[in-house]
Design brief:
2 copies of one chain form a homodimer. The first copy, chain A, is built from 6 helices and 12 strands. The first copy, chain A, has 252 residues and is of the alpha+beta class. The N and C termini of chain A lie far apart (42 Å).
Amino acid sequence: MSTIQIIGLKGLPIVKEGDNLAKLICEATEKQGTPIRNGDIIVVTHVVVSRAEGKIVNLDEVKPSEFAKKIAEPYGKDPALVEVVLRESKSIVRMGYGKLITETKHGFVCANSGVDISNVPGERVVALLPEDPDASAQKIREEIRRLTGCDVAVIISDTHGRPLREGEINIAIGVAGLKPIRDRRGEKDLFGYVLRVKQTAIADELASAAELVIGQADEGVPAAIIRGYQYPKSENAKATELVRPKEKDLFR
Amino acid sequence: MSTIQIIGLKGLPIVKEGDNLAKLICEATEKQGTPIRNGDIIVVTHVVVSRAEGKIVNLDEVKPSEFAKKIAEPYGKDPALVEVVLRESKSIVRMGYGKLITETKHGFVCANSGVDISNVPGERVVALLPEDPDASAQKIREEIRRLTGCDVAVIISDTHGRPLREGEINIAIGVAGLKPIRDRRGEKDLFGYVLRVKQTAIADELASAAELVIGQADEGVPAAIIRGYQYPKSENAKATELVRPKEKDLFR
C-alpha cells in the first residue's frame, strides 16, 4: 500500500519583509507535532514568499499610465492595479471578459501577471510574484537543510485559471530539489505496453494536492508538507520547464 | 492540524466487461487494510471504468474513412485509431505538432477524444471514454453505499495535456456526491479581505492528488482513496461544470 500525506501548516505568523520564512516554517512544523523529515515536499503559497522578500507594492504610490487608465475603465478595475500588472508583464496574451492575461517576466502566462490583491495586509497593497521563484525555493530548501539536517524539495505555488476549464487550481511557479516533470517515456504499463502518456507535471499536481489543505482551512494555512511521495530529485530544475514555449502551443 | 491522506489501491484484478467495479474496489480496500469510510473520496482512472462498461474497440474491426487516412499519415498515426478519435468527437478544436485536439461528445476538449491506447489488454485495442462518466461515478457510489453503508464521493479521472503548460495532469471527467467547484466567493482571507480567487476546481485538484499514488506505482494502481478532505456535497453535480463554455474562453 502506498500512502501520501498532505499536512497543512498552521500557526505560521503573519510574514513580513525580511522574515526568515524557512525558520518560521520549521518552527511551525515542530509546534504542531509534525517536524520536517527527509524526503518531505514543502509547498508554500507565493504570497508569503513575496511578503518575506518585500515584493509588495502600495497602490497609492503608483501613477497609472494613460494606457493603464484606458484599459482599467471598461474592466471596472483600479488603474493603479492595472499599471502594476502592466509593469510586471512582458506582453499581453489575451484581454476580454474582464480579464487581463499576461506573460510575466518569468515567462508564466496568467491573469494579472500574478499580482495578488488577496492575503496582503493593507487595503491598497498588492503582492507581486517573487523575482526568481526557483531561487526563492532553493533558498528555503537550503535553510531548512541547515536548520533540520533534512533534504527536502520545495515548491512555490500560485493559484491559476486555465484555458478550456472553469475554476482555478494551484500550480508550481518555483521548484527546488525535484524535477517538475516526471518523464515516463519508455516505462511500461499494467499490460506491458509502453506508456502513451509520457510526461507528468508532478510539480503542478503536488501544488494542487497541497491546495486541498491550504484552501479548505478557516484560518490561514499558507504552506503544506507532502509526505511519502518519491519524487525524482534534481539540483538544477526550473519551474519554467512547465511552461510550453509559445511556438509549440496550439492555443496561443 | 489538518491532514489529508491519499491511499493507493493495489490488488485490483484486471477489470473486464461486466465486472462490478465497486465491488472489486471494496474488496481491494478490505484486503489491503484500508476499508472505505464515510466521507472518503474514491478516485478511479477512466480506463478501468471504460473496460467494465465494455467501451473497448478493436482497431482491426474499424474501417477508416478517407479523411481519417488523410490526417493519420502526416501524424504517423494508425488510421483506424484516428477514425475512432473522429467518431468520438463532436468537433476538431486544434490540429498540429502531431496532436489532434477534439471536443468529445460530452463536451471535454482533449487530445484524441480521450481514446486511450495504454492500459488496455490486446495490441490493437483501445478504450473510449465512458458514455456518461457522471452516471458511471454515481453507479459506483451507490454500489459502494449498498455494500459498505458508507457515503462517499466518486471521481472518474483522466490524464490531460493542457494549453500553456507542459506535462499532463489528472483531471475529473465524472463526479458523484461532491461539487466539482468549491465556490469561495464572499469568503474572507487571512486578513479579512474578501477573496479575489473565487472558484477552485477541487475535483481536478483531487484527481491530480490521486495521480501521485496512481502514477508512481510500479504495479497497477488504477484507483485511490482520498481521506480527510471536507468536500462540498452535491447529489446532482456534473463534471461538465468544469468545462468553460467556448464563447467565454479567451483561448478558443
